[in-house]
Recover the amino acids of this structure.
């Protein structure tokens, strides 16, 4: 039997990572295979579930509400498949490994640009 996984927290972290472009950043760091592997695995788990597959696509486009729907679908499948739950936990842990770096030029637009930013924090168990 596998280790207990907080499937809700892991699902939310992975869904947020997919929507925020975090997968692209992780893929660049890992040589490109990680992002494709995560998405391929999720599609395989979703199988013929067209609604969940559509939610995955919408989350990747960062459409409103899609991240919460994807997190819900991921959690639903993870509760029924311990191996998938363990994978979600692993991906969620990887989502928090890198920092966020922002580069701006200190010109008159920097202040205005700073006002229009949204910061999303994903809580991970144990932090």
């Amino acid at each position: 039997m596998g280790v207990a996984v907080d499937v809700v927290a892991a699902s939310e972290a992975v869904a947020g990572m997919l929507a925020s472009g975090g997968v692209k950043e992780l893929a660049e760091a890992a040589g490109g295979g990680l992002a494709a592997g995560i998405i391929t695995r999720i599609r395989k788990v979703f199988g013929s579930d067209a609604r969940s597959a559509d939610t995955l696509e919408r989350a990747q486009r960062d459409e409103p509400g899609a991240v919460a729907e994807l997190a819900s679908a991921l959690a639903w499948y993870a509760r029924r498949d311990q191996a998938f739950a363990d994978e979600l936990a692993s991906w969620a842990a990887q989502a928090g490994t890198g920092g966020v770096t922002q580069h701006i030029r200190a010109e008159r637009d920097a202040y205005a640009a700073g006002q229009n930013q949204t910061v999303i924090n994903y809580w991970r168990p144990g932090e």
Notes: Confidence is low (pLDDT under 50) at residues 97-105. The helical segments are 7-20, 22-29, 33-46, 50-60, 66-80, 82-95, 108-115. Residues 7-115 form one domain. The chain has one domain: 7-115.
